[in-house]
Amino acid sequence: MLASKLQDSRLFDLLKEPVSSVQDFFVLTGRAIRNIVRRPHYADDVFLQMDVIGVGSLGIATITGFFAGAVMALQMSKALATYGQVGKTGTLVSLTLVRELGPVLTALMVSGRNAAGMASELGSMKVTEQIDAMRALGTDPSQKLVTPRLVATCAMLPILTVISDFVGMCGGWIIAALFLGLSAKLYWTSVWQALTWPNDVLFGLLKPVVFAVVISMIGCYYGLRTTGGTQGVGRSTTQAVVASTILIFVIDLLLTKIFVSLGPV
Questions:
Q1: By CB distance 3.0 to 4.6 Å, which of 70, 235, 245, 263 could disulfide with 171?
Q2: Where are the chain's structural domains?
């Protein structure tokens, strides 16, 4: 009996910290979302974060999208050539980019860049007691620091995804024109006809919004719980990138399953 109680106690101790962390994460997320409709609204901070997150990530999102589309065109054309359907290359490139690769790859790039940035920035403020000073002055750190990053990421990640998708289609077109002998009219006609609303376009834009919430809240959460000085900042940065990357793949699977069950794709 005593051994059983000790084992249960150890199991409870092991589960207590992860359960508490998940609870704190959802509390912070709920508070940040609620602050969107509460005053004061820090519009300057929102626009600043939109510049950092959106404009700052434009280059890496564009490069990632271009080469994703180019590689997809090369790979798909080889498979389609077996069935004499090389003309369908644009269809497969557009569907793959809009449904999956565009949102996921863009989210991963933004996560690696901005989730780490948020965690390191807020972590540095935490270990230098700037956040405690903010509370002492009567400012809510979640409203001043977290909500602007949440709003900015939700606004900019769908835009970055659209840009990445289009550049990826352009990359596929360049490959199709140079190596496959497809005309621009044939390629872009197949791209346009393949995409439908809402199964492709709407779902392809809903995913980045969900990913944006994950990226911003994971980065802010690990930044606000940083302890241990400069080593703690580095640890929080690493944890934010790893956690957001894993969650992006998990949520992508769940959203894809939901979208597929809602109707024909």
A1: 70
A2: 42-262
